[in-house]
Amino acid sequence: MAYKVTLIPGDGIGPEVISAAVDVIEATGVHINWERVEAGGQAMEKEGTPLPAYVIESIRKNKIALKGPLTTPIGYGFRSLNVALRKEFDLFANIRPVRSFDGVESLHKDVDLIIVRENTEDLYIGQERMIDDNRAESIKVITKGASERICKYAFYLAENLNRKKVTLVHKANILKLTDGLFLETGRKVAKDHPHIEFEEVIVDAMSMKLVQNPQDYQVIVAPNLYGDILSDLAAGLVGGLGLAPSANIGEDIAIFEPVHGSALDIANMNMANPISAILSGAMMLKHMGRLKEAGMIEDAIEDVLKDKESRTRDLGGILGTREFTEKIIEKIYSYKQVEGDGYAKEI
Ligand code: NAI
């Protein structure tokens, strides 16, 4: 079966890491017909807008996109291109798995958690205004509908991935109405899933607990801004942004992307770590139901990272983006040779 997917290489290191992800996906044998479109700085130069209408049309038509990081040009009507895309397609759930890899130097081992971040409201939407020269205001909106939708999704994920606990993060002791509504809604949703443990943790305490004992957490659900901050914190616990994939999920459209930005300081230098983009590609394959191939990619990354030499520079290795990608591809071919079509490690 051939799939059609919108491919947005993005800015800075985007084209390098996205092309790595495409090559690795091809190596698994999944055939994808990529519809390549440009957004961000590239589109700005050619089309005069960072988000041309054909990008939106392509995603709407194909329903799945793999995208690189975008640099939002200042002064062209967008506070953030990513927020604009999430809004356009009502991509209400931002899913960020965070796991440790054997051998990669990190603050913690045995971390395997998923942050489920509400993606459509809260302070992150940036509804701000100046009251006068000395006063600025930002509006935090939390709705019952969006809170219910994200909490239900967190429990749905926990059930599907066989996780035993969902942790809801809030600051309802101070923000009694907004975070209070999020918490109250989460409690109600939890009642429908009595077999999954439910716990509530205040965001400041959560930051400390995550640094001290990240292994205690399995699925964390949070409003937009706390989810944003905690997911970078969690990525830092296991080796940095170069390892962190993500998915933006809506009712019928999904966009997969690395968590990191366009890293202009290392763009076009064959220095970027492509793991975040490659793992985002693996998340995309899972979304398409290609679990075996997604598992192959995850296993290949895990196996290749065990060798200290076989890493990119951000992880203390010596390989360039391209050379590291070749190692992953070789590993995938080696699985296919050994196990033929019967490759079925548990995933
Ligand atoms: P950044 O993630 O681009 O870079 C932060 C630091 O991490 C830099 O030193 C960079 O070299 C390093 N880094 C990031 N990814 C790496 C990788 N894969 N391998 C090795 N090193 C890596 O964050 P920054 O500098 O805050 O943002 C740069 C631009 O990216 C901004 O224009 C920002 O708006 C945009 N951005 C876009 C995102 C998206 O499209 N999803 C997400 C975050 C930022």
Could you characterize the architecture of this molecule?
The structure is a single chain. This protein has 347 residues and is α/β, with parallel strands linked by helices. The protein has two domains: 1-94 and 245-347, Isopropylmalate Dehydrogenase (3-Layer(aba) Sandwich); 107-237, Isopropylmalate Dehydrogenase, CATH 3.40.718. Helices cover 41% and strands 18% of the residues. Helix 6 links the parallel strand 8 (165-170) and strand 9 (197-202). The chain is globular, with a radius of gyration of 20 Å. The chain starts with a strand and ends in an 8-residue tail after the last helix. The structure holds 1,4-dihydronicotinamide adenine dinucleotide (NAI). 1,4-dihydronicotinamide adenine dinucleotide is lined by residues 13, 17, 69-72, 82, 241-242, 257, 260-263, 265-266, 272-273, 276, 314.
Helix and strand layout, with pairings?
Layout: E1 3-8, H1 14-28, E2 32-36, H2 41-47, H3 53-62, E3 64-67, H4 81-88, E4 93-99, E5 112-118, E6 128-132, E7 135-138, H5 144-160, E8 165-170, H6 178-191, E9 197-202, H7 203-212, E10 219-222, H8 224-238, E11 245-249, E12 254-258, H9 275-287, H10 291-305, H11 321-339
Parallel strand pairs: 1-2, 1-3, 3-12, 5-10, 8-9, 8-10
Antiparallel strand pairs: 4-5, 4-11, 6-7, 11-12
Bound molecules: 1,4-dihydronicotinamide adenine dinucleotide (NAI).
